[in-house]
Write a structure and sequence with these properties.
6-stranded mixed beta sheet; globular; 14 strands; 305 residues; alpha/beta
Length: 305
């Protein structure tokens, strides 16, 4: 079926949007009043830097420094949603998309959980969120490709399903050629929902020349759309120059997620006004270490009354 309006889309996915309580996991205990900020730190050679302490991090919201209430540099349990393009433009590339999901699943721990969303002319939750992920890749094998591309509806569906997640660390991995020509939701609306929910988005771009005419208009816009949404949420977009690189890219994303710091603070600005709050993370570099670079989600939307 095709979603002909946002209302129809929301009605369909409301059944998947039942919120579950968030128990504590590992060293990071989270309550609803805290803002979570995943931070990736790399050195001048782009290697992940571990072993930093809370005193090395400073979080600013709209230019005002906040007090970090909780800090973790450990590999905390992860909730990950795979959002996979099955439209006609993917075609024979679907097998490598599946291999990328399989590669990522190999890195998951016993407390991690995952789900699978596919999209072509409409989005569907093919495998609801679960810790039993053994059958997930097999379910993707049965999918047929074809039709138009509702990329933003697919990401929106993933954000809905993520509301069931019980782990505080939440990530969507989007595998697509980036084109969108059939969504009810816009890129702006999807980005706002992602920033409201605190979900990091990583994108794996599947880009391939269409012969002498080159890329379609949608595919030309694809890298920019995926990159913008990813960077705003603290994730990254990876473009595979060769299709056989997809499993390798999936492994890189998994490694990055295992090497992040989690900061949590209670905002000094307690107004529930639904406004956008800009985030900045500054590093106090330890003695003997230089050239460290941090990456974080660039902002979030405060809750509304």
């Amino acid at each position: 079926m095709r979603y002909r309006s946002k209302l129809a889309f929301l009605l369909v996915f409301s059944a998947w949007a039942q919120q579950q309580p968030n128990p504590a996991h590992g060293d990071m205990r989270v309550d609803s009043t805290l803002v979570l900020v995943p931070v990736t730190v790399t050195d001048a050679r782009h290697r992940y830097v571990l072993g930093l302490e809370q005193k090395n991090f400073h979080v600013l919201e709209d230019g005002v420094e906040q007090q970090i209430k909780q800090f973790s540099g450990e590999d905390a349990p992860l909730s990950v949603g795979f959002v996979v393009d099955t439209s006609g433009s993917i075609g024979s590339k679907i097998d490598l998309c599946r291999q990328a999901v399989v590669q990522f699943l190999k890195t998951m721990n016993i407390q991690d959980e995952a789900f699978l969303v596919t999209f072509s002319e409409h989005a569907q939750v093919l495998a609801p969120i679960t810790r039993d992920t053994d059958k997930m890749a097999n379910q993707l094998m049965t999918v047929q490709t074809g039709g138009m591309t509702a990329l933003f509806d697919g990401v929106f569906a993933g954000l809905h399903e993520m509301e069931k997640a019980i782990n505080p660390r939440k990530t969507l991995v989007v595998i697509s050629d980036g084109g969108d020509n059939n969504s009810a939701f816009s890129a702006k609306e999807v980005l706002q929902k992602a920033l409201e929910s605190g979900v990091q988005i990583y994108a794996m771009g599947v880009f391939e020349s269409l012969g002498p005419l080159g890329l379609s208009l949608e595919e030309q816009r694809g890298p920019r759309l995926l990159s913008n949404i990813s960077e705003q949420t603290g994730g990254r977009a990876f473009a595979a120059s060769r299709l056989d690189q997809l499993p390798e890219v999936a492994a890189r994303i998994a490694v990055e997620l295992r090497n992040q710091y989690m900061l949590a603070y209670s905002p000094l600005n307690q107004a529930k006004d639904g406004t956008y709050r800009k985030l900045e993370v500054k590093l106090s570099q330890p003695e003997g270490m230089t050239g460290l670079v941090a990456r974080w989600r660039l902002g979030y939307y405060a809750p509304a009354q």
